[in-house]
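Quick one, tokens below:
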């Protein structure tokens, strides 16, 4: 970054970089936002936790789930967030999805994820990326993944949120991407803790039958408010919350 008057280069703080980073557009839920401004589960944390770094990944175990011809990196292959993002960025959508499933420990629910043939899943994800770039919003993409219509994938909020997290980051939305929601930590531990601090307000739940976008958007409203308070990314906030409540 340069000074306009003298064109001298000067250091840019992480906060300043965050202000100029690509950002998604969100419409915050009013009641959720009011509670989140008064209560944060990580208000005393000085540093953020790191996102799960992944483990070894064996592409041959996933060949039947990916569009052909496949094109995997050389092994040994580390299943890291950076590698997942790279696969999305290279338009290897079903390879990226295989990595998301493995990274998220969702192998047991594979039957609910591979609901369409690989070519169809590839096309839906390509469409998601196009809509996100055009609108700077995940609302339409969420319906494409979690909706139950014939041309949608019918995924859970867990799978949809993990997929959109990495897809958005691959496009360049690193400051406030959607972050994963899960049942064990977020729904069963963080939500009840949030509800205890609601006072006289009654915000709606973060998960509802059919996984509507509005429910997930309420979760992201809380995450974004906490990210703004800390001047962290939403990824850093979710990793920190997950780390804290995993220890309880």
């Amino acid at each position: 970054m340069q000074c306009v008057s003298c064109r001298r280069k000067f250091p840019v703080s992480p906060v300043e970089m965050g202000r100029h980073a690509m950002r998604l557009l969100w419409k915050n839920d009013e009641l959720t936002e009011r509670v989140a401004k008064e209560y944060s589960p990580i208000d005393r944390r000085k540093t953020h936790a790191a996102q799960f770094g992944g483990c070894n990944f064996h592409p041959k175990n996933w060949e039947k789930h990916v569009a052909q011809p496949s094109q995997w990196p050389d092994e040994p292959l580390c299943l890291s967030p950076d590698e997942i993002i790279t696969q999305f960025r290279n338009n290897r959508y079903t390879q990226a999805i295989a990595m998301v499933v493995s990274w998220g420990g969702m192998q047991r629910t594979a039957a609910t994820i591979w609901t369409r043939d690989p070519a169809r899943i590839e096309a839906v994800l390509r469409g998601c990326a196009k809509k996100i770039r055009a609108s700077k919003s995940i609302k339409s993409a969420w319906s494409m993944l979690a909706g139950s219509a014939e041309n949608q994938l019918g995924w859970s909020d867990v799978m949809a949120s993990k997929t959109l997290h990495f897809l958005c980051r691959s496009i360049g939305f690193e400051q406030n991407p959607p972050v994963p929601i899960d049942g064990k930590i977020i729904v069963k531990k963080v939500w009840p803790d949030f509800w205890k601090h609601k006072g006289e307000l009654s915000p709606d739940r973060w998960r509802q039958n059919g996984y509507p976008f509005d429910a997930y958007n309420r979760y992201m409203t809380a995450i974004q408010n906490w990210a703004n308070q800390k001047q962290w990314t939403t990824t850093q906030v979710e990793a920190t919350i997950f780390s804290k409540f995993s220890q309880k």
